[in-house]
Write a structure and sequence with these properties.
Elements (H helix, E strand, L loop, with lengths): L1 E3 L9 E6 L3 H11 L3 E13 L2 E15 L6 E16 L20 E4 L3 E3 H12 L9 H15 L9 H7 L1
Parallel strand pairs: 5-6
Antiparallel strand pairs: 1-7, 2-3, 3-4, 4-5
Length: 171
């Protein structure tokens, strides 16, 4: 869902509720979570000051993903506030955006192009910012046992072919 920035009135924000029935929101959250969401609801408030756009709101989503260690299904739920700022990409007359070193106060900014903000990108970014780096099982001892069993089952017993001749010396 794209919002044309100039159509957002400065004195009034645009409210965008969303849930699983909104295909753009479902797809954006699936991209951010790397899994199809089982539940999704929230709202975004989009406001503008000149060319600067601020998106606030809240989201709640859940999905089932694989544990990063033992690969069993793990349910994750995120409930997060959304507070993101966007500015337009500046394109010089040559037609290509110029590369520049960002200053510290610019690191929290997102960018929009062609005068429009893609709310699917906003939602996907908000979800990705809330996820842990790795999703793992809550029961760590069971997870470690499953991981050890997976590693043992998949570990080749032969080793590198160049060292096969040395096996006879170790016996």
């Amino acid at each position: 869902m794209r919002l044309v920035v100039e159509e957002i009135r400065e004195e009034r924000s645009v409210s965008v509720p969303f849930d699983l029935n909104e295909p753009w929101a479902r797809k954006a959250v699936a991209h951010g979570m790397d899994a199809s969401p089982a539940s999704l609801e929230g709202h975004l408030e989009v406001s503008r000051s000149g060319v600067n756009v601020r998106v606030t709101g809240a989201l709640s989503a859940s999905a089932t993903v694989q544990c990063a260690r033992c690969t069993v299904p793990v349910s994750i739920t995120i409930e997060a506030p959304v507070d993101l700022a966007y500015v337009p990409v500046t394109v010089p007359e040559g037609g290509h955006p110029e590369e520049k070193q960002l200053e510290e106060d610019e690191l929290d900014l997102g960018f929009y192009t062609d005068g429009a903000l893609d709310l699917a990108d906003v939602l996907s970014e908000a979800v990705a910012l809330e996820l842990p780096i790795q999703v793992v099982c809550e029961d760590t001892s069971s997870c470690e046992a499953r991981t050890a069993a997976l590693l043992a089952a998949s570990a080749p017993d032969v080793g590198h072919p160049a060292f096969q001749a040395l096996r006879s010396f170790s016996r």
